[in-house]
Structure formats: C-alpha cells, structure tokens
C-alpha cells in the first residue's frame, strides 16, 4: 500500500494499527517480506495480491493474515478504507497463547490455505467495535496500556477465528489434529529435518500411519508437504536475500549444494539462479 493518507498508532515499536483511506487506486510495485505478524482488513475495495507466490483476488470486507517470513506483493488494488494491525512476537506470541486463542495454523502460519476471511454484517460490527476501542486506547496514556492493547488484540484475533470457523468447516477429528500437529512441527524443523520418519517419531506414529491419515483428508503426501515448505523458503531466500545458492542450501539443511540445486530444479523446472533471475 502507498504511504499516502495513512494514520499510524504504535506502542513501543511492537504493536501498531494503521488506518488507510483512499479515493483512488493505490499500488506498490515491489514485494514485501513480512518481519512481524500482520492483519489486513480491507473494508471497502478490491484487488489482486500475491502471497508466497500464490495469487489471490478479493472484493470488499475481507481480512487476511500474514506471518513473519511470508512474501506479500500487490498486483493491483483500489482501496477506499483499510486497516493494518502489526505486532511482534514480543508483544503477543501466538504460539504461547494458542491453547486459549487457537489461531496458530488457522489464521497465522497457515501457508497451505487461502488466507482470506470474510465477516458478515454482524461480525463486522463486533470487529469494528474492538478496532475503535484499540485506537481509542492508543490515543490515551493511561496505566497498564500494554495489557489493555494486548487484550483488545486478543479479542480481535478470537473474533476472526470464530468468523473463520463459521464460514469454513474446521474439523476437529483425529486426521485434522494430526495434520495441524504435523504442519506446525514441519514449520519449526524443516531446515533440519527432511524425512517423514523424523516427524513420525516425534508424533509417536509410523510414517505409513501418517500417510494414511493424510490420504483421508485428501492432502498431499507427508513427503511432498515437507518438500513444499523447503521449496517455499528457498524461493523466499533467493528473492529477498543476497545469499548464494550454496549458502541457501546449507541453511536449508542440504550438505551438498549440487543436490539442493537438483532438488529445486526438478520441482520448479528452473534452476535456483534462473528462478531468481526471472522473478
């Protein structure tokens, strides 16, 4: 989004809310890699965004959620009213609070599903109330402001989780819980653990059993799941860092850079250097 007409409220560089009002098209011509958690709420407007190299189109009243490391590019947008909430792990750690909020893997760190959430009129009213309370709290300088801001952010996230669950069937069966546990485990370990056996051991299951659970969900195989996460990070590092292919290979747990190049080329149909050049 362009910097024009943006009003920003912030707390110690760990949490901020930006309000955006446009009367004309507003675009950026470059990609942004997220360094914090971000919630975008496009109340009025439409556009086409690229998130982690996947294209998404939207129209009016939509929320989407980005996690640190994800790549966000605006292809086109015509925005009238929008808000952006950004917070660091130091301000609010979604992993620590996941047992009570249940947003990890549903709103954030969910790189395998469409990241958009569309609230209905009633849900929009609730979210608006929380957002207005947040902005009001930012404008005050009262005691325990951190606690109040964190409380409002938590309410906003919980409301968004409820909207997600209302509009998307989020199962709580054995297969779904296992898929979430497996995906979060991959998210934490994909740079060092590449084999399904490694994750199966940590989950107390056999690789064959995990594969059967994935088949019931109609998901890609556990092996392909791990490969997809490694490839996504490889793309991010190629585009948004100056690291060499050799350095990226080592960072992603490959002892042989030549093997990493073959792995990448087979999946993407381009060598790492060609992918970087074309992008």
Automatic annotation (TrEMBL):
Organism of derivation = Polaribacter ponticola
Asked whether the keyword Transcription regulation is assigned, the reply is yes
Q: What is the lineage of its organism?
A: Bacteria, Pseudomonadati, Bacteroidota, Flavobacteriia, Flavobacteriales
- Superkingdom assignment: Bacteria
HTH araC/xylS-type domain boundaries? 180-278
Q: Where are the transmembrane segments?
A: none
Keyword Ubl conjugation attached: no
Per its record, how is this protein called by name? Answer: Helix-turn-helix domain-containing protein
Instruction: Provide the leader sequence positions.
Output: none
- InterPro entries with a match to the protein in the record: Homeodomain-like_sf (IPR009057), HTH_AraC (IPR018060)
Q: Which UniProt keywords apply?
A: DNA-binding, Transcription, Transcription regulation
